[in-house]
Design goal:
The complex is a heterodimer.
Chain A: H1 32-71, E1 83-85, E2 88-90, H2 100-106, H3 109-140, H4 147-159, H5 162-173, H6 179-186, H7 198-226, H8 230-238, H9 243-254, H10 256-271, H11 275-280, H12 292-301, H13 308-335
Antiparallel strand pairs in A: 1-2
Chain B: H1 26-54, H2 73-81, H3 84-115, H4 121-131, H5 136-149, H6 156-180, H7 184-192, H8 197-208, H9 210-225, H10 229-234, H11 243-248, H12 258-292
Classes of the chains: A mainly alpha, B mainly alpha.
Domain ABC transmembrane type-1 (chain A): 115-329
Region (Disordered) (chain A): 1-34
Pfam families (chain A): BPD_transp_1 (PF00528)
């Protein structure tokens, strides 16, 4: 998943690299047709192989994205978009309003509230699932009896579709007679309104998301651990390095490329995690567990009248935030000497 | 990665709680197994509880005991009295198509970016990474309109195309990593034997990449099987729903038929678990092939 490709691939199929040549194909010189033909002749294999992806993504993401950005600069809502009622076709009457939506959103405490919780949600989910996944992966990464059994059990949550798991957790969290509360009262303690108390609801959604997320971390990190040469550990052991020192100076550096990738990916996924929150609490109680994405969804599909333009503006802001985080993260990695 | 309990050249008995490679006394061993056992129970318990609950009579859904009156009533109810079978059919069509097309497209893309240097490659790689970031919220309304214009609402094909855009970018990354691990000498040998790049890819490289393909198939399958937001926005009318959308009708603000829900959830989880079981062996190598070499 690293961005840099290996150097060896250049010579793979005999296609000369466009990089490293003195000229680029997009230069507008009189020779363009010939050059274009030459580029086509050399690269048409590669281009035809990636064409389906480029076309599908271009149409299904490019167009809606452009349109979403455009909508965010208008005052479109359910009442003024183009629609057909019976046989009557009513044309769109929404108008361009410039940055009004953004101004309204950023000037409102609601957005900052939601952003604060979204950041807290993302950071705690990613940190917890990474830490737990790493601890379990380290334990599983050696020979002992029952290892395969443990591994299978630990990645089981991945085999269950997320929405099924979420419903199961709702069953367990049920306030009146869910298993957790039955156990609590059985132990002589009071019930907890897991999903109806703002603080507990936050803890509950994070718990469920960590439970859902650990298997991916575990698998990825286990793969990373297996690629660290055993000789390194043997040498360190000979030198009398303590287990902690070996973990600190061999395991962690050896896992860097894997962990930087999974942390980035799971940050993006968690930030946009829709099903867990939407199905567990619907963003409630009140809006205590509403993250940016579920709120934007609510604006355009739940409330009435549906507010398309504001929802689109929220979406654009989410995208900008993520792009910013990614760029900063990669810059930080590069500064530490990572290759991608 | 061998067991080192037999030789202790340096007297480094690890302080108990730090469980790392190296010498492991009985106490550390016990700790290791206890921790893993606890974690396994936490991982397995919710699905297990779901299974147990599905065999209880509807009225006992919240009973904390194990099954008292074993019944298959919930399953019968779900299959006979609800639209479950049409949801299942919808889901199977959508997910089957998505997986087939997705695996193929991800493989060709992954192969192209792994083996060729071509103009537009870097932007393409960036695009694949960026699509991971697009929030459902910004796409869903315009996409809804687009599908409505094309007459694809309530049509499986609309969802298939949507899921492809979700699954393929990540899968292409994975496949690229996998192809990077296959020696280029194989391609060269194919070309010497007179195969063109397509032939090399199809006849030589693809068969070698089977574990990677398995993981890609699994990921694509799970993406479609478990997706909620697009499915509930684009499919309306009871009989057009997919499983994810349909399941929500059992438990909402007005009704809560936990018996039906649990039975349906079990039926949904079983195929996923089977597919998972088939590819589990390859998951570690397939998923991280790319990540481990940068």
């Amino acid at each position: 998943m690293a961005v840099e490709t290996g150097q060896s691939v250049t010579k793979a199929a005999g296609t000369p690299g466009a990089r490293g040549r003195g000229h680029r194909t997009d230069h507008k010189t009189p020779k363009t047709p010939g050059r274009l033909r030459r580029a086509l002749a050399t690269h048409w294999y590669a281009w035809s192989m990636v064409a389906p992806v480029v076309i599908v993504i271009g149409v299904i993401i490019g167009y809606p994205l452009g349109r979403g950005v455009w909508l965010s600069f208008t005052d479109a809502d359910e009442a003024n978009v183009e629609r057909t009622i019976g046989v009557n076709h009513i044309p769109a009457t929404y108008e361009y309003v410039g940055l009004d939506n953004y101004r309204a959103i950023l000037g409102d405490g609601l957005f900052w509230d939601r952003l604060g919780w979204t950041v807290l949600w993302t950071v705690s989910c990613v940190a917890l699932s990474f830490a737990i996944g790493l601890a379990l992966a380290v334990m599983l990464n050696r020979a002992f009896k029952g290892r395969t059994l443990y591994r299978t059990a630990l990645i089981l949550p991945w085999a269950v579709p997320a929405f099924v798991s979420v419903f199961t957790w709702r069953l367990l969290f049920n306030e009146r007679s869910g298993l957790f509360n039955e156990l609590l009262t059985g132990a002589g303690l009071g019930r907890i309104s897991w999903l109806n108390d703002p603080a507990w609801a936050k803890i509950s959604v994070i718990t469920v998301n960590v439970w859902v997320g650990v298997p991916f971390m575990l698998i990825a990190l286990l793969g990373g651990l297996q690629s660290i040469p055993a000789e390194l550990y043997e040498a360190a052991e000979m030198d009398g390095a303590s287990p902690w020192q070996r973990f600190r100076h061999i395991t962690l550096p050896g896992l860097r490329s894997v962990s930087s990738t999974v942390i980035l990916l799971s940050t993006i996924w968690t930030f946009n995690m829709f099903p867990v929150i939407f199905l567990l609490t619907r963003g409630g109680p009140g809006d205590a567990t509403e993250i940016l994405v579920t709120y934007a969804y609510r604006l355009s599909f739940v409330i009435s009248p549906r507010d398309y333009s504001t929802s689109a503006a929220w979406g654009v802001l989410i995208l900008l935030l993520l792009a910013l985080v990614t760029a900063a993260y990669r810059r930080a990695l590069r500064k530490q000497g990572d290759t991608w | 990665m061998t067991d080192t309990t037999s030789h202790t050249p340096v007297g480094t008995e690890p302080p108990a709680p730090v469980r790392k490679r190296g010498d492991r006394g009985p106490l550390a061993s016990l700790g290791l197994h206890l921790t893993l056992l606890t974690a396994s129970v936490v991982a397995v318990f919710p699905p297990l509880w779901l299974l147990v609950t599905s065999f209880k009579p509807k009225t006992d859904a919240f009973d904390t005991s194990l099954v008292k009156d074993f019944t298959l009533g919930n399953y019968g109810h779900v299959i006979r009295d609800t639209d479950f079978l049409s949801w299942l059919q919808n889901s199977l069509i959508v997910v089957g198509l998505t997986t087939l097309i997705g695996v193929f497209v991800a493989a060709t893309t992954g192969y192209a970016v792994s083996r060729f240097r071509f103009p537009g490659m870097r932007p393409l790689m960036w695009m694949l990474l960026l699509t991971q970031m697009f929030p459902v919220a910004v796409l869903i309304v315009p996409l809804y309109n687009l599908l409505a214009d094309l007459g694809l609402l309530n049509q499986p094909i609309g969802l298939v195309v949507t899921y492809l855009t979700v699954a393929v970018p990540f899968c292409a990354w994975m496949m690229k990593g996998y192809f990077d691990g296959i020696p280029v000498e194989i391609d060269e040998a194919g070309r010497v034997d007179g195969l063109n790049p397509f032939g090399t890819f199809w006849r030589l490289v693809l068969p070698l990449a089977r574990p990677g393909l398995a993981v890609t198939a699994f990921y694509t399958f799970i993406t479609g099987w478990a997706e909620v937001a697009y499915a509930s926005a684009f499919m309306t009318g009871e009989e057009n729903l997919t499983l994810a959308g349909g399941l929500q009708t059992f438990v909402n603000q007005y009704t809560s038929d936990w018996g039906a829900l649990t039975a349906a959830a079990v039926i949904i989880a079983v195929p996923a678990a089977i597919v998972f079981g088939l590819v589990a062996r390859h998951l570690v190598s397939g998923l991280t092939a790319g990540a481990t070499k940068s």
